[in-house]
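Following up on my earlier thread - several people asked me to post the actual chain instead of describing it. Fair enough. Here it is, all 413 residues.
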Amino acid sequence: MTEHQSPLLRTLADRGYIHQTTDAAALDALAQTQVVPGYIGFDPTAPSLHVGSLVQIMLLRRLQQTGHKPIVLMGGGTGKIGDPSFKDEARKLLGEEGIQSNVASIKRIFERFLTFAPEGETGGPTDAIMLDNAEWLDALEYIPFLRDVGQHFSVNRMLSFDSVKLRLDREQSLSFLEFNYMILQAYDFLELSRRAGCRLQMGGSDQWGNIVNGIELSRRMDGTEVYGITTPLITTADGGKMGKTMSGAVWLHEDQLPHFDYWQFWRNTDDRDVGRFLRLFTDLPLDEIARLESLEGAGINEAKKILANEATAMCRGCAAADEAAETARRTFEEGSVGGSLPTFVVSAPIAVIDALIGLGFAKSKGEARRLIQGGGARVGGEKVTDEAMTITVGADSVAIAAGKKNHGLLVAG
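Reply from S.P.:
Thanks for posting it. Predicted structure:
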């Protein structure tokens, strides 16, 4: 447990969210005396966020749960540039229509994790709000912005930030457009301070330099004291990146990832990660989490099911969690086929290799062949031994499995 006095910092520390904090004592004192509006920015680079963004979403949830005000900042403006932090190359630039479509789609996610005021109402002091930085960034005039804001940034210092230094050390191109990103993000903090009384910016550890820039800009231009918190980089116990699987990203939207696949991602958590993930990604009390992470053998598998149920219910709803859990029970415990497994629709006989790729169980024909050669592919419960096997789907679906954990269905379309 920690020495923090405010429920906000105590909760964040006890659950493992804090990596770095600017002036923790002052922020702790502020959080005891007033509602602290805090924000996190999300660039709309896709129609859905994925599990890699979930720590930040949960951070906003914890902010609200401890009596403070979450601000979700959509990067309709900065999304036109792309954050270069620790990227090997520039992001593909999206057009205005694509950005706005992604913003509208992503908004649905936050309504599941945060409480917003009813549409058309002002809302209470802790109701979440959603803003778009295009509202102020699109209206900026270049010369006044350079004069009023640009003067507060040292190029020497900007070049020293790890997010920039890494690209330059690798002799990878960093465009002037991307280089401006950190100035615009700092300006976002200033604008949110002015518009919404925002006193806190939160983000991943790769955002530390950007957050510090915003704090210094607010102090220099307005004399306002604001604060920053970063979260640790979340990796799995085996060193992998959180949210990355053989089949790709673990999307939060159900139209990009079936409920069962989302549930199964959490069920497949490494034994060593169960307690940490329960603290970060569920609302279970800490004493109950301590009990669950102490279980061994079959008990830790029950803890994983609880993690999967809790995480899925929060993101997809209780009905989705129950459906996925029942599908898993029928598939793995009874040996039958559950109803919410991922499916691949086929209209003609299909090669088993193409079926494995279509279900996301292999990324290439070579990977599918290796899976078959290793004895890991099954069709209708029977091990596949012939790489040239063709599957014909009739009125009944055909069950396909890859290894012990990946199960799917071929259905006629």
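Residues 298-316 form the longest helix (19 residues). That should answer part of your original question.
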